[in-house]
Design a protein that fits this description.
The complex is a heterodimer.
Chain A (H helix, E strand, L loop, with lengths): L12 H26 L3 H21 L3 H21 L5 H23 L3 H9 L7 H20 L1 H9 L1 H6 L4 H23 L1 H18 L3 H26 L3 H25 L9
Chain B lengths: L6 E10 L2 E11 L4 E5 L6 H9 L6 E6 L5 E4 L13 H6 L13 H13 L15 H13 L5 E5 L7 H16 L3 E6 L11 E6 L1 E6 L1 H4 L2 H8 L3 E6 L2 E6 L11
Parallel strand pairs in B: 3-7, 3-8, 5-6, 6-7
Antiparallel strand pairs in B: 1-2, 1-4, 8-9, 10-11
The chains are: A mainly alpha, B alpha/beta.
The complex binds adenosine-5'-triphosphate and magnesium ion.
Amino acid sequence: MLAFDLFEPYGFEFFQRGIIVATIAGALCGLLGVFVVLRGMSYIGHGLSHAVFGGAAASAVIGINFFVGAGIWGIISGVLIARVARRRVLGADAAIGVVTTASFALGLALMNRYGQASKSIEAVLFGSVLGVKVADIVAVSLVAVFALAVIVAWYRKLLFSTFDPDVAHVSGVNVSVVEVVLLSLLSLTILVTMRVIGTLLISALLVIPAAAARMTSNSFSKLLWISPLIGAVTCFVGMNVSYHLDTSASATIILLDALVFIVVYTVAGTRNRMKMASLGHV
Amino acid sequence: MSTEPFINCEHVSCTYGNAAVLDDVYMQVNRGEFVGVVGPSGSGKTTLLKAILGTHPVAHGSITMQPKLTLGYVPQVETVDWYFPVTVEEVIVMTRSKSSWWPRISQAERKAVREVLDRLGIGEVANRHIRELSGGQQQRVFLARAMFRNPDILIMDEPTSGVDVRTRHEVLHLLADLHADGLTILLTTHDLNGLAAHLPRLVCLNKRVIADGNPRDVLTPSVLESTYGAPMEVLEHGGMPLVVDHGRVPMRGEGK
Ligand SMILES: Nc1ncnc2c1ncn2[C@@H]1O[C@H](COP(=O)(O)OP(=O)(O)OP(=O)(O)O)[C@@H](O)[C@H]1O
Ligand SMILES: [Mg+2]
């Protein structure tokens, strides 16, 4: 007999729901992560996850639905960030930092004041498999289908405005609309991923699978399936491992991603190390 | 057919923050012209092109363009992210964003890409990553991307920077052919003798337009000195002006 039963966790409904959400969320983060990495937006991903946290806390206090409240808040933050980021003169990093950390601090304060216990803060910061509901499965699936549809339909626009925004603009691509849509997708992704992965580690899930995928391929279209694949597999495996080792699901998933990155980096070797330059200031 | 200029810049000023980069620039480009803009580094050549393209705001004055003009823009190669994961074919095809709802490159597109590349003499590179190309090939890939849209006017930022003499010749011949086929071209260059002197019209720019006209009239010591702020001599060679730079630094060990 085995020392432990591989299928034991599947007997729990919370685990079934959690692993479905985590796997879809991993694929979704991997998909959007390609744009985050190639556009050098990892800081924006980090900022947005903190902003959405503020929105989540505020909607809990006001008593409106988490997805509605935090979703609207996230999309507004995304659009604001896009506007601020365009004015490069002003030190966009600092401006984004102010907006998003203020939002984060507001969330913390609201939860201190009105939340039930520190338990719920921890759940939002680090994610909690126990809290995953059927609504989360529906939400993450809807966002994933929507993101996939947008990326397929706008594939060339997205590629063009990521690679060469000035020329894309000249060629009739509405670069600002593309950017706003991308940031909204990013906000929605963070929103539906937050309950499992938690605010603090989402940005890692947005960056690491895409960065690892980037080292395996020189083709944009291939990145768009390699990166989601890494994201989904690490989330799936990470959920199982975390159950058996009794470690935090999000931490286990991110550590697995980091492991994949290290392995790919080592295997890809010096030849591909040059490609790292394209990751820019990530 | 309208006789209005393709591009009409009137009293154009541009700034970066508080620094004025262009001041009261007046320039027109008409259908069928081949115009070169020359000037020292930082004189605002790229900024002028960006203002025309609408990617840099105009602080004062106005730039008007003939309606429904299709622009083809070839950026300065130094500004391209050569590590970006795309192949030559993908770079060229991305300009057609409205062709179909499915992103896959169709057979017809593949053929069209080959045609453009063949025309520019680089048919064999279609499936290579953009980093795996020589400087001249890279230049031509971005020219091919611009040509793929069948533009009315081609706008190029330093099409011969960083290429050798032979490639420069090839690019110049290519552009002359495209111009002969009726394409309007506006480019910038640092290459006075190798490129600028061969063009039918030159604009000398240094924040303002210093001179505008035929190279024979424009490439004169006084115009060059006020454009570049350094004394230069102009000789004649084979019926063409040849600019000689006298800012010579004597080297150690140099004999008399
Ligand atoms: N993004 C920017 N922010 C601030 N200043 C800038 C920026 N881009 C250009 N400048 C400044 O504007 C001036 C004109 O730059 P521009 O790039 O138009 O010159 P250029 O004639 O194209 O030069 P080069 O021949 O070196 O390409 C320069 O003084 C430059 O320092
Ligand atoms: Mg320039």
